[in-house]
Amino acid sequence: xxxxxxxxxxxxxxxxxxxxxxxxxxxxxxxxxxxxxxxxxxxxxxxxxxxxxxxxxxxxxxxxxxxxxxxxxxxxxxxxxxxxxxxxxxxxxxxxxxxxxxxxxxxxxxxxxxxxxxxxxxxxxxxxxxxxxxxxxxxxxxxxxxxxxxxxxxxxxxxxxxxxxxxxxxxxxxxxxxxxxxxxxxxxxxxxxxxxxxxxxxxxxxxxxxxxxxxxxxxxxxxxxxxxxxxxxxxxxxxxxxxxxxxxxxxxxx
Amino acid sequence: xxxxxxxxxxxxxxxxxxxxxxxxxxxxxxxxxxxxxxxxxxxxxxxxxxxxxxxxxxxxxxxxxxxxxxxxxxxxxxxxxxxxxxxxxxxxxxxxxxxxxxxxxxxxxxxxxxxxxxxxxxxxxxxxxxxxxxxxxxxxxxxxxxxxxxxxxxxxxxxxxxxxxxxxxxxxxxxxxxxxxxxxxxxxxxxxxxxxxxxxxxxxxxxxxxxxxxxxxxxxxxxxxxxxxxxxxxxxxxxxxxxxxxxxxxxxxxxxxxxxxxxxxxxxxxxxxxxxxxxxxxx
Lengths: 254, 283
Fold this sequence. Notes:
The structure holds 2 protein chains of 2 kinds. Chain A has 10 helices and 10 strands. Chain A is an alpha/beta fold. Chain A starts with 7 loop residues before the first strand and ends with a helix. By secondary structure, chain B is mainly α. Chain B has a domain at about 55-230: MetI-like (MetI-like fold), CATH 1.10.3720.10. Chain B has helices at about 1-30, 30-35, 50-80, 85-100, 105-120, 135-160, 165-170, 175-205, 210-215, 230-240, 250-280; strands spanning about 40, 45-50. In chain B, a hairpin with a 4-residue loop joins β1 and β2. In chain B, α6 (about 135-160) packs across α8 (about 175-205).
């Protein structure tokens, strides 16, 4: 798949951790303001691929990364790049919610406070706006100073999403973001993705095919560290071209 | 097993009661207020003021913590967060080795290195004259002794921090140092406090090394270069001697009781603080 103006463009990416060659010669383009899902069996490298987009692999020991990842045309593996500037562009939503050890308010304000010294009044507006964005405002407006850990898991995950949006990213990276949630919370998060794709490019890692079917515009199928097939969601799920994709979609490979 | 558990727990009470029982003679003679508040220590005249000893203990312990805590936290952060894994595996055994060195060796080290260091290099900048034997010397020696204890606990606490929590902060564009300062240390606070409490409890009771470098002069210290006389040193130096003096035996038992109470109170207070903190953070 090629796009005229891809948001992320991965070129010849290889990732090795120790002796383990996790990603092998990856070349893909991620489109702007669409939902792109990365699917594949456990351990195929889909989370690793996602983490190369905001350089979260940097902290892994013995990691070796070669190739290029261009975000808005800028190679983020260029040694002269400022990592914080890249990461700020992408909100991360991990498997389980990890609220920061502080209040609900401070969780949202954390990012903006790091990137500047916003006025209290502006912060108040921002916090309210972001909490409304994820549909959490009504539930927490009376206890903004309570510790974030007091929220339910589903609420925490929405808080984490709002926290990511508060730094004004262009993109949302979701790493099996609903796998720890109950069906209702999953539904809420999926709806949010559908709503947010108007403003953000979204990349999701998921192992739930139904979820990929519900939210994706494009699907990337990864198997044993290689891209097997990449195309519009409909095509990958209903009419895959590759034998491996066919088997995976039918549930023969898990 | 229950029996052993009960036996060991009740030992604490038995020791407490025993010490109190042995202190009764002096408590009959002098009030708690006189014993704790007075600075006059003249056993021959039957005057036993424990205030200098209590202050000596607090000064030495306080200095030790002030010196050790920042060093320990920075060391732990380096070992866990920054050191390459090969260096980390190499560093930890050394830190643990420190805790295996007998206190008397720390005492000798204090006398041979710290005392001259304070006497010739540090003290002249601040006071007219100091022999080097001081609460500062005691504090430094003690700081080195509690260092491995704090470092090993804080290390454990830092190592259990989930990588995802760090990632969450990094993904928002925070630098590693911002993440450590604002997220990791905050999350680790209860653990750091617990480590400090253990270290302080240990420091209160440390005897021989402190006794060798503190000067053991029964006056209330007013600066870090003054001599001090902590409670454990008082007991260790005098128990068995001068038992012919009336009430002396009882006075030393009272010193032990005081130490016991200080440590007990300290542990209770810190436990309360810790539970509150944990509740506030965990919700």
